[in-house]
Amino acid sequence: MEKYPLTEAERRVIRDKATEPPFSGALLNERRPGTYLCRQCGAPLYRSDDKFDAGCGWPSFDDEIPGAVRRQPDADGQRTEIVCARCGAHLGHVFTGEGFTPKQTRHCVNSLSMEFLPAGADRSAHGHSYETAYFAGGCFWGVEYHFRHRTGVVSATSGYMGGRTDSPTYPEVCSGATGHAETVRVIFDPEIVSFEELARLFFEIHDPAQVNRQGPDIGEQYRSEILYTSEAQRRTADALIDRLTAAGYDVATRLTPAATFWPAEAYHQDYYDRRGVTPACHLRVKRF
């Protein structure tokens, strides 16, 4: 499944399972925020948040995007090989129990097996397209968690949208004076997951019937809202609301054109995964 032409060196690694020389890879010292994609098919594999310096000479990650990487016994009978779950491209090997990070996992990946998509970019160097969606459904910690763990999501970022204040802070948003909602920006690969699938997930991880609150969190900043980026997204969300309404739900979710997204402070990002726990308030309830 070769979507993009490979160089001879890339073919040796990706197809023939060779290993690039240590400290030679172009992505070894890449420090910018963004996403690492499969060089062969363009599928998102790793996030920059999970990259660390293991001193081994190859890019190292202590986690993968859920469902993106497959483990299998290596031909040497000793190591565990990792490959792209979509196309089978050889990535490298995974090791556990080494103590580099609390996750006790090191994905040792060849730079030649990947390409890098900087945060905020809509396309890779090869033209692979991604889409963006914005969802507000109570405290953004839980909403971000569920989207971050959805296969096909490249990144999920907590932030603020829909208000009157530029560069709002968390205390300002919590005061109710800004009009912003706690919002999660979701960048996703439409070849893997559709906007409709993401919107269904959104309606099932929070209570869309609550007005300006989610459980104990009360205030306009906790409202239920989809901030659409296209007319197609609006129509899809509207159709899902009609289905929920027909099923007896009194849906309070707003549909609003997306505006400027203001990323939240660093301590809000990846909140639950950094603590090694799961959300207590955003539990998935089947509604479709």
TrEMBL record:
Instruction: Name the family the entry cites.
Output: Belongs to the MsrA Met sulfoxide reductase family.
Q: GO: which molecular function terms?
A: peptide-methionine (R)-S-oxide reductase activity; peptide-methionine (S)-S-oxide reductase activity
Organism of derivation: Candidatus Tidjanibacter faecipullorum
Q: Which PANTHER family match?
A: PEPTIDE METHIONINE SULFOXIDE REDUCTASE (PTHR43774), PEPTIDE METHIONINE SULFOXIDE REDUCTASE MSRA 2 (PTHR43774:SF1)
What job does the chain carry out?
A: Has an important function as a repair enzyme for proteins that have been inactivated by oxidation. Catalyzes the reversible oxidation-reduction of methionine sulfoxide in proteins to methionine.
Per the record's keyword annotation, is Transcription included, yes or no? no
Q: Which reaction does it catalyse?
A: L-methionyl-[protein] + [thioredoxin]-disulfide + H2O = L-methionyl-(R)-S-oxide-[protein] + [thioredoxin]-dithiol; L-methionyl-[protein] + [thioredoxin]-disulfide + H2O = L-methionyl-(S)-S-oxide-[protein] + [thioredoxin]-dithiol; [thioredoxin]-disulfide + L-methionine + H2O = L-methionine (S)-S-oxide + [thioredoxin]-dithiol
Q: According to the UniProt record, what class of enzyme is this?
A: oxidoreductase
- The EC designation for this entry is 1.8.4.11
Q: Which NCBIfam families match?
A: msrA, PRK05508.1, PRK05550.1
Q: Which residues form the active site?
A: C139
> Which UniProt keywords are listed?
Multifunctional enzyme, Oxidoreductase
- Gene3D superfamilies, from UniProt? Peptide methionine sulfoxide reductase (2.170.150.20), Peptide methionine sulphoxide reductase MsrA (3.30.1060.10)
Indicate what this protein is called per its UniProt record: Peptide methionine sulfoxide reductase MsrA
Query: Pfam families this protein is in?
Result: PMSR (PF01625), SelR (PF01641)
